[in-house]
Design goal:
Elements lengths: L2 H10 L4 E5 L3 H13 L3 E5 L2 H10 L4 E5 L7 H11 L5 E5 L4 H9 L4 E4 L4 H36 L25 E4 L2 E4 L4 E4 L5 E4 L2 H12 L7 H7 L8 H19 L9 E4 L3 E4 L3
Parallel strand pairs: 1-2, 1-3, 3-4, 4-5
Antiparallel strand pairs: 6-7, 7-8, 8-9, 10-11
Amino acid sequence: MSVLENLHQAQATTLASLLLVDAQISARACTAENLRLRGYAVVEASSGEEAFAHLETYPCDLVVLDVALRGTDGVTVMRRLRADYPDLPLIVLTSHPTVESAVAAVKLNVVDYLTKPCKTDDLVLTITRALEARAQQLRQQKLLALVGAAMEALREPATVTQSISVPIATPTPVPTLSSEVKNSGIVELDRSKRQLKLRMNPPRIIDLTEGELSVLIALMEKPNQVLSYNDLAKSALGYEGMDKWTVESVIRSTVFRLRHKIETGPDAPCLIRTVRGRGYFFSPV
């Protein structure tokens, strides 16, 4: 078998991991089995509490949630899922559609709101589209990370005599910490060494780029305070006069790289939190 054929076979046998949350045992078992027959790896949960316990231990690619739950109600679970896992695709199922759950689904940007009984083909089609959209989002994030890295390279001191023209205003000074070493929760940031230490077991020492350091300083100087893309671009990176798309792209890519360096779960960040439509804030833990 050729290398290309091996690659195609590996891609075909790669399973997406789904979390199915449904209080009805028989319905849940039937749906889970049908999805497994279609090639998905399915973890089952009967309540919101059980679902979050699974997510803390076994991250998944997508959640299918029946809002008719015992204990914590489905709308509350929806809201917490979106707050704790903002990028995790969520599909809502219900046998009894209500205005409250439908409005919540729209506001929380769920993938789809399906009524039961739902055909397996319809559910699989919705799952496939959601996973494809998520994959595209991850590809865009990686591309933005490359853009951010390129922008950051232009900010580093030039090592050649060739002049470089950059379409932005003269950078303003990057933020300074009140001391060379900043402590906040489990985080210890050493500006002079451009290093971050996570007080864990065992401790982790992480090297940062100048841009990552500047953004993290800006966030740590104002813990639990939301900073917009423009705030971070201006105060942390010294960029002014840039269009909205470029500002958001650069900041998102910088935060994306930071999260993959310092968060234990980049898809469920604890230190650098997102406020949808507004920006980011640093949450000491």
